[in-house]
Amino acid sequence: MSDTATTDAAAAEITGKAIRLDNVTKRYPGQARPAVDGITLEIPAGQIVMLVGPSGCGKTTTLKMINRLIEPTEGSIILGDEDVTTIDGDDLRRRIGYVIQAGGLFPHMTVAQNVALVPKMLGWSKERIEARIDELLDLVSLDPATYRDRYPRELSGGQQQRVGVARALAADPPVLLMDEPFGAVDPITRQRLQDELIRIQHEVRKTIVIVTHDFDEAVKLGDWIVVFREGAQIVQYDTPERILAEPADEFVEDFIGSGAGLKQLSLRRVREVELAEAVVVRAGSDAKDALARIERAGHHHVVVTDDRDRPVAWPSRRELGRIQTLPTSLVPDTPIIGSGATLNDALDTMLVSSAGAALVTGRGGAFIGVITVETVMEAITAARESASERPEGAPVGINTGTLAVQQPAGSDE
Ligand SMILES: Nc1ncnc2c1ncn2[C@@H]1O[C@H](COP(=O)(O)OP(=O)(O)OP(=O)(O)O)[C@@H](O)[C@H]1O
């Protein structure tokens, strides 16, 4: 995951607006049961809400009712404090960015033309549009000079998806709707695009609603996750931490799949836990001196760093006894992990190290402390404990329709 993802969390201003679905129902003609059954759902401004659930449960229908690509049969949609249920649908869609699988780009238009679509419709000046195209391509990590004039067929799947995101953000809409946005790319590109979205969201702070089949993606991206069953019945609407620690019922448990503990680890980062101190010595210095220092400190290992404070080795007392001079270049298999990595990655790194711990690096790869297996275990316990209470002011998600057979978790009523 990108290192920048969790920095400056509070820095950017929220530009998203809250969305509220109020008692919304969708009945398709000829269908006995409603596809969406009396849903009331609050989507907080500036946050990412993931819609998950089995195929056909009504995720896409719920999403598309927000920009009225699908008209609700009953109920209303409130954007900010405006009821948008009856305004012109095309108008509404210009105010809501929409990203679909594979980007949904127009094949006969260049990247620039695709991105410029909505600003053009809104009558922006040529200069403003041109500047915006460059700004957005930069934002999604595509060099404007290289990509502006390319056609979608000249781009990889991941690049097309990036342009899709740039296009959706073009007119700076408060809301972004994404339908399986990363469904059509390979797993590595998918991971990269997810990281990119997290980074972009830290800059733009939109309200983003994403439909996904992939529960791990929901955990990674979501501030909140809605777990649906058929008829868009909300089974649980909670933070990823809470869904993993306190699944509402067996249905949610099945959905989470195996390894809930490991998934919890992927929610926390190395920089968020307390690191242990270490004795640090310079590369190339005397091994016996280093041994004496760690013996005095009661430590069993010494961290050897280069002249830029980057760790190169982590010898034990026994290893120090066998050498004269400390290594000067990186010793293979030294367990090193960046502070932006997840605890899951840290654990992976530790498991291959005989020390059951890893050296943590910060800016410029400089050594900042040691993470141990115990710290990781404590972090899991703490996360479980803090997830046992539903956070105050959590958004509401309930169904009041005819299919509602049980009191959903998270209901206020
Ligand atoms: N245009 C339509 N006409 C009739 N029925 C429809 C229409 N679109 C969807 N449905 C039905 O409504 C229900 C919900 O569909 P929807 O596409 O919202 O589910 P989904 O959760 O997004 O599914 P998937 O994950 O497979 O995309 C399904 O039973 C589907 O068959």
Report on this structure:
It is a single chain. The protein has two domains: 239 residues, P-loop containing nucleotide triphosphate hydrolases (Rossmann fold); 106 residues, CBS-domain (Roll), CATH 3.10.580. Strands 6-7-8-3-9-10 form a six-stranded mixed β-sheet, sandwiched between helices. A five-stranded antiparallel β-sheet has the order 5-4-1-2-17. The chain has a three-stranded mixed β-sheet with strand order 11-12-13, with no helix packed on it. It has 15 helices and 17 strands. The two termini are 38 Å apart. By secondary structure, it is an alpha/beta fold. Helix content is 34%, strand content 20%. The structure holds adenosine-5'-triphosphate. The site of adenosine-5'-triphosphate has 11 residues, from helix 1. Adenosine-5'-triphosphate (ATP) binds next to helix 1. Its EC number is 7.6.2.9.
Helix content: 25-40%
- Distance linking N and C termini: 38 Å
Nearest-angstrom radius of gyration? 25 Å
Note the main sheet. Answer: 6 strands, mixed
CATH superfamily of the largest domain: P-loop containing nucleotide triphosphate hydrolases
Kindly state the mean pLDDT as a whole number? 89
Q: How many DSSP E strands?
A: 17
> How many helical stretches?
15
Shape: globular
**Multimerization status:** single chain
Biggest β-sheet: strands ordered side by side in the sheet: 6-7-8-3-9-10
CATH architecture of the largest domain: 3-Layer(aba) Sandwich
